[in-house]
Each structure stands twice: as structure tokens, then as C-alpha cells.
Specification:
five-stranded antiparallel beta sheet; mainly beta; disordered N terminus; Tachylectin-2, Chain A; Immunoglobulin-like; 32 strands; five-stranded mixed beta sheet; 470 residues
């Protein structure tokens, strides 16, 4: 292209931007590898057509990616956060049962072939004893910025599971290890990035999801305060490694008024320039469906359609897949994943490939007229051998007194059915102050007053517990 035509193109582009027909290209966040479309690339953001809506349909009854173990009274994976990669592989994080006094842990699994086969699960995030996420790590929402995967999650110090807050942790690897935001940086005792300050008898804040748009990180989260049921939005500087310190509240994105609406998973459909949020309606009921909301600016959402046909009875906590930056690309296979089941805490996890199109007006037909499916849960057979996926320690906090002889740290291996077996050998302890305690085998001996976290390792698995010497 000669200089005359290049100059003419530049003038035309400037005029179109000034008239609002085109948007200026957003700055690149972090890396500038345009071939890596999973994250941090310079997307060509298009101007959304405000007159259009989005239709998402479920063409078939899908397939289970998790099933409870036969003979168990509980077992579940829910609140899926799903990343589809350029090679068709899938990374998925879910919440599942935790240890004694820890309600939920976060699990990770990988599919190399678009959901047909999955690697063995790993527990990648657990509560930190004696901290503000004492009881739970649940409701994962995952984004990748630069080299780091970030898991947002819900937790609380209220033993009734209310007054929740939003936390975040990061890792260079989707399977961890993760370091938690501590209020100033990464690692150590966690501090919340969204702190609930409403009615202490209700859920509070939690269930985050993330999108990177240009140089901004959009952080969506549930806010349930008394009768309020909202999805709220904060934004942060995606170019700042310590982005939680840059968060600014933007407002209420969705006021949920339909019956029994639960958490929103929010993504950005790059081909349409539109934000999309999905959440289950009439959750846990035979009339359950999945609502779809859209927005042109990321803050003001409106209902667009419902997914009910081919979804399962009693579904809840739905998620929709995207690339690692929270963008949906229509060239990819796009999936929804949710938990379902009519017995509390005995839920399978189901996945569907979905179709996405643009429409001229909201399509609410399926909400009143669609029929979902009574899906019978197919239980897994119990394994004949113990295949551990993590380790844990009981109790999670040890309090010793000077002059006492000490205590044994009780370590257990845990399998994917959350069964436990005591382990005694080949355990290594680290990260403790040798002036405060001595460790012989699994025996802890107090030496001087102090408090610290101790890391235990066995066969490649690690866990932490808190030791206080008074």
C-alpha cells in the first residue's frame, strides 16, 4: 500500500471512530503475541448492535462429566468455570465437598479432546486455617492474565455459611499451587477483594466471574442482602500485577427478580461485541431453566432468552465456557455445565455443547413453554483400590502449650469420593520456625511461643495447617 492510500485509510478510520461507527483498538494487555488467542491479545472490538439480542440453544441432552459414587449419601461438583483452549482442550474447575469443618474445596480437571475424556481430578484450593476463608473455597471463577491463572472464590468465617466475601488466588499452572491475595500482594493469609457489609443473616457476596476487555478486568459477583438478589460489577487495572488493589465498584449489573435465580457466569461474545450472563432460574426444581442476559456496556443487562429444552430437572449453578480471557469465540465449541439432582448434595455435573446466534428481539418462549428433561443420575462404581487426589490434616489447627510433651499431626490421604485413610510414613514437613517447634516423624514438640503455618508433603501432595504455641 503506497503512502497516499495509507494516509487516506487513516483519515477514513479516524472519521469512523469519531462518528462512533468504529471503536479504537484497545491496548494490548501484557503480552503481544497475537497468535495466542487464549488471552492478552489485541482483539478487534466491534461496536455492538443495540437492537439485537442473543439466542443460546441446547441441541441435545448432553452428557455427565461427574457422577456421585454408588452407595454414598453425598457427592457433588458444582459451579463450574470452564476454559476452552485454541487446541480444543478444556480446563475445568468446580467446587466439591471438603474436609471436616471445611465445607467445600476447589477441584481441577483437564480434557484433551473437547470433553470426551478427562484427567484425574486434583484438589487445587482449600481454606487457610485461622484466616478469613476459614470455612470454604467454593464457586470458582477463573481468568488468565499474563502468565497467571486467577481463581476467584467464595468463603466466610460465619459457621452458618452466610456473610460471605469474595477472595482470589493465582498460579502459573491451572493445577496450582495457588497463592492467595493477602491485601497487599500474593501469598500468606488471605484477605477478601469484595467484603460484604449487609444483612448478616443472608448469603452476602461471592460467586465471581471475570472478563478482560482491553486493559480492564471486569469482576462480577453475587450480592444477596436481605431481599436483594443482585449481580454486581467492579473493574480493575488488568495491567497491574496487584490488580485487586485497583478495584473500583461500578454498580448493579443485574437485579434478579425471577424465582430462585442463582449466580451469574458472565462472558464476552467477541463476534457480537456483547456481554452475556447465564444463571439458573427455579433452581433445584422440576421447572428449572437457564436464563440468558445480555449487555452492550458490561453494566446494564437485560433478559435475552432462556435455555430449558434438553436441560435437566433440578439444575443449578451453571457456567458457560470461554477462552482464558473470558471471551467467547463462535469459531470454538461452546459448552454450558451445571450440577443437577433432586437429592441435596448428591448431584451429578452435566455438560452440553450449545449453539449461539443473534436475534432481533428477546425470545422468552422456552421459559413458559419449553420442557426440560428428567435426567436419571448414573452412579459410578466404587473403586477397589485407594487412588488419592489430595491430602489433609485433622485438625487443621494445633494449639500447644510450653511444658507439654506435644502432639501427633494426623495426616490423611483423600480420594475423589472424599474417603480418607490415615498416612504415617514418607511425610515431610517444611516452612516452620525451628525455634518455635521441633518435628520428629509426625510428632510436634513446642519449644517457644509463636504461631506459624506448617506445610506437609506426601507423594507430591501438600497441605498446610496452623500451629500456635502459647
Amino acid at each position: 500500500m503506497n503512502s497516499f492510500f495509507a494516509s487516506l485509510l487513516s483519515v477514513i478510520t479516524s472519521v469512523l471512530i469519531a462518528l462512533g461507527v468504529m471503536q479504537p483498538p484497545g491496548p494490548t494487555v501484557g503480552f503481544t503475541d497475537l497468535a495466542n488467542r487464549d488471552y492478552n491479545y489485541e482483539a478487534q472490538y466491534i461496536q455492538p448492535d443495540a437492537s439485537k439480542y442473543v439466542k443460546i440453544t441446547v441441541p441435545d441432552t448432553g452428557f455427565d462429566v461427574y457422577a456421585p459414587t454408588e452407595g454414598k449419601s453425598s457427592g457433588y461438583r458444582y459451579g463450574a468455570s470452564i476454559i476452552t483452549n485454541a487446541d480444543g482442550s478444556i480446563d475445568m474447575w468446580t467446587a466439591g465437598p471438603g474436609d471436616k469443618d471445611q465445607w467445600d474445596w476447589i477441584f481441577y480437571t483437564h480434557s484433551p479432546d473437547g470433553g470426551k475424556n478427562w484427567t484425574k481430578e486434583q484438589v487445587v484450593l482449600t481454606p487457610t486455617p485461622g484466616s478469613d476463608d476459614f470455612y470454604s473455597c467454593c464457586d470458582p471463577g477463573v481468568i488468565k492474565i499474563g502468565e497467571y491463572y486467577y481463581i476467584g472464590y467464595t468463603s466466610t468465617v460465619n459457621s452458618k455459611g452466610i456473610e460471605n466475601n469474595v477472595f482470589v488466588a493465582r498460579s502459573l499452572n491451572p493445577a496450582g499451587p495457588y497463592e492467595k491475595w493477602n491485601g497487599n500482594g500474593w501469598g500468606g493469609k488471605p484477605e477478601s477483594i469484595v467484603t460484604y457489609n449487609g444483612d448478616v443473616t443472608t448469603f452476602g457476596a461471592g460467586e465471581p466471574s471475570f472478563i478482560v476487555v482491553k486493559d480492564k478486568l471486569y469482576i462480577y459477583y453475587t450480592w444477596k442482602d436481605g431481599a436483594l438478589n443482585q449481580t454486581r460489577l467492579s473493574v480493575a487495572d488488568a495491567t497491574d500485577e496487584n490488580w485487586p488493589a485497583t478495584m473500583e465498584y461500578q454498580g448493579v449489573a443485574i437485579n434478579h427478580v425471577l424465582p430462585s435465580e442463582d449466580s451469574s457466569d458472565v462472558k464476552y461474545i467477541e463476534d457480537y461485541g456483547k456481554f452475556v450472563a447465564i444463571n439458573t432460574v427455579n433452581r433445584f426444581s422440576e421447572d428449572s431453566s437457564i436464563g440468558v442476559y445480555i449487555s452492550d456496556d458490561g453494566l446494564n443487562f437485560k433478559i435475552s432468552c432462556f435455555m430449558k429444552v434438553n436441560t435437566s430437572h433440578c439444575c443449578h449453578n451453571a457456567g458457560i465456557s470461554s477462552r482464558a480471557n473470558g471471551h467467547i469465540l463462535l469459531e470454538d465449541d461452546v459448552f454450558i455445565v451445571y450440577a443437577y439432582g433432586d437429592i441435596w448434595a448428591l448431584w451429578a455435573t452435566r455438560m452440553h455443547k450449545v449453539d449461539i446466534s443473534i436475534i432481533d428481539s428477546p425470545d422468552l418462549y422456552e421459559y413458559d413453554n419449553g420442557t426440560n428433561v428428567k435426567t436419571e443420575t448414573v452412579f459410578r462404581e466404587a473403586k477397589e483400590y485407594f487412588d488419592p487426589i489430595t491430602i489433609t490434616v485433622r485438625p487443621h489447627e494445633y494449639e500447644l502449650k510450653l511444658g507439654e510433651i506435644g502432639e501427633f499431626a494426623k495426616l490423611y490421604k483423600v480420594n475423589d469420593a472424599l474417603e480418607r485413610e490415615r498416612i504415617y510414613l514418607n511425610i515431610k514437613f517444611s516452612d516452620y520456625d525451628k525455634d518455635v517447634i521441633s518435628v520428629y516423624g509426625t510428632y510436634i514438640i513446642p519449644k517457644s511461643a509463636g504461631q506459624m503455618y506448617v506445610t506437609a508433603e506426601w507423594n507430591g501432595f501438600t497441605t498446610q495447617f496452623l500451629v500456635t504455641v502459647k
